Amino acid sequence: MTRVLDVRRLGRTDYRECWELQRELVTARADGTIEDALLLTEHDAIVTVGRGTPPENYPAVEHPVVEVERGGEATYHGPGQLVAYPILALEAGRRDLHRYLRDLEEVVIGVLGEFGLVGERAPGRTGVWIDGKKICSIGIAVRRWVTYHGLALNLHNPPESHDGFRPCGLDASVMTRLADHCELPPTNLLGEVLLVKHFCRVFDRELPPPGSSEPDARGFPSLPLL
Questions:
Q1: C-alpha torsion sign, points 139, 182, 12, 38
Q2: To bridge 87 with a disulfide, which of 37, 114, 137, 158 should be the other Cys (CB 3.0-4.6 Å)?
Q3: Cα–Cα dist 121/107, whole Å
Q4: Radius of gyration of the chain from Cα atoms?
Q5: Confidence label for 191 from pLDDT (cuts 50, 70 and 90)
């Protein structure tokens, strides 16, 4: 049976505040007090490092660095990047984290296809690539079989965004952005619409009726994309 997806378009957010919101929503979803949610945001510039990231992989970062509980290594978040955090209660038949990672990659591959681009997987690595360059980083965490953290898709972030560290343990020169491959509007709205479309396709979710959701206690809107 198709399940409802509550899409929350947060706009520009402070990373730590959004991180705390994710953890609150994970608890609420595990307790069954909310539906599945997808947070869409764009952060102030920051570098997050996942479990076990060697310090030598981020020796000269000019942005704040925050250690988090997700998998993966050092990742840039900042203006011009679309970040998506799914808060999903994984069904019994989908409690396979490797499958979940491949499903997130499939969402991004679908988005890139809308621009006539072929998104690729790299053997032994997580994320999505175009012509040997990485365009999307993925790092997840799961608690009580509810997912959080998620994916960061480079749209039109500055070319120097990944300078001073090894993104995902790789040389910074391997990173690319959608703006390097096609023309894009100046905001992230188109990327959000397409990401929601393909997220619902891959995960078999549907949006709630327009006007059926209210802002949460922090004032973040909970709105379907039309």
A1: negative
A2: 37
A3: 12
A4: 16
A5: very high
Annotation marks residue 168 as catalytic: yes
Which amino acid is present at 177?
A: R
Of the pLDDT bands very low, low, confident and very high (cuts 50, 70, 90), residue 61 is: low
Q: Would the pTM of this model clear 0.85, i.e. be above it?
A: yes
Neighbouring C-beta atoms of residue 189, cutoff 10 Å: 13
What are the residues whose beta carbons fall under 8 Å from the beta carbon of 84, sequence distance 6 or more? Answer: 38, 39, 40, 150, 151, 153, 195, 199
The amino acid that residue 115 corresponds to is: F
Smallest Cα–Cα separation from 85: which of 113, 48, 122, 120? 48
Report the distance separating Cα 209 and Cα 224, nearest Å: 7
Locate 32 and state its tokens: 């069954």
Beta strand spans in 45-98 (E) = 46-49, 65-67, 75-77, 81-87
Number of Cβ within a 10 Å radius of residue 93? 7
Spatial separation of the C-alpha atoms in residues 139 and 165, rounded to whole Å:
17
pLDDT in tens, 137-163: 999 999 999 999 999 999 999 988 888
